[in-house]
Amino acid sequence: MLLAFTKHCSLLRPSLTVLILCFLSHPAIGAGLDVTAKAAVLMEMETEKILWEKNKQAPRPPASTAKILTALVTLDRVPLKEIVTVSITATANKSSAVPLKGGERLTVQDLLYALLLQSNNDAALALASHIGGSTPKFVQIMNQKARSLGALHSKFFNPTGMPYRGQLTTASDLALITKVALANPEFRRIVATKSYPWKSSTWEGTIDNSNELLKSYNGATGVKTGSTREAGHCLVAAAERHDKILIAVVLGSQEKQVWQDAKKLLDHGFKTLDAAPGRPLTSR
Question: Which of 54, 56, 64, 155 is catalytic?
Fold first, then answer.
């Protein structure tokens, strides 16, 4: 079929023939990788260039990847050593790992570690109430922050990422949010931490980071896992090699496949950069 097409094109002007053949031979940016996720994007952090994408603007439930934005707003507004009195309403959620107790006092730093390493919903609600005065007011700040970063296709209704009608984001938006978050050294340090000693009135021990890539992928530096029935398994992953930082966003994947999806994206990105370091990256 292609042979017949090229023979027909030979009757056209040579420049037009070359243009058409180049178009046919150039692979789509979403081609070449077998990624299970319903939406994904791979971005080079410094330049914001997209190296690979699949449905990058498709609206998807964020699950706990929303906590990246929650943490970013927190770090923008309060110091790590500030004391937060955990509200009773923050502890009403029964699904949190390392549950908190209403009235106990913890540092912002402790709450951020619980938030980002173990997706602690109580910590998200405690920080939201402390910073915004109420969860709805904090969520307004979240949405304002997202828009200011160019994440124009996202809408948040809570700081936890738990299912809520209309709460949606995109792989592209999460990549932009994560880029800014990783520019904050405190955020970067927290999400790269494999374990953190924890002590509160309800529990004492060690919090382990739920991001398996920190142990299994060369150069992994974070960032955040997430999973709900509606969202599927989600992961925002970052890795650094040779002074290049890549951000991979995987939304709507499967339980075990989510790690493979992220690894495939990161491997593809580093191979692309290593193979052609002088070649301009695909524009966003």
Answer: 64
Regarding beta strands 195-199 and 204-208, do their DSSP bridges make them parallel or antiparallel, or are they unpaired? antiparallel
Whether 67 is a known active-site residue: answer yes
215 catalytic, yes or no?
A: no
**How far is residue 196's CA from residue 176's CA, in Å, rounded to a whole number?**
27
Global pTM?
A: 0.87
Q: Report the Cα 145 to chain-centroid distance in Å.
A: 15
Topology classification of domain 30-275: Beta-lactamase (3.40.710)
The active-site residue out of 87, 96, 119, 200 is 119
Domain spans in the chain, listed from the N-terminal domain onward = 30-275
Q: How many CA atoms lie within 13 A of 270 on its CB side?
A: 20
45, 182 contact by CB (below 8 A): yes
Residues 239, 244: Cα–Cα separation, whole Å: 8
Provide the residue-wise pLDDT of the chain in tens; the chain has 284 residues.
Answer: 444 434 443 443 444 333 333 333 333 455 579 999 999 999 999 999 999 999 999 999 999 999 999 999 999 999 999 999 999 988 877 666 787 899 999 999 999 999 999 999 999 999 999 999 999 999 999 999 999 999 999 999 999 999 999 999 999 999 999 999 999 999 999 999 999 999 988 889 999 999 999 999 999 999 999 999 999 999 999 999 999 999 999 999 999 999 999 999 999 999 998 876 555 444 33
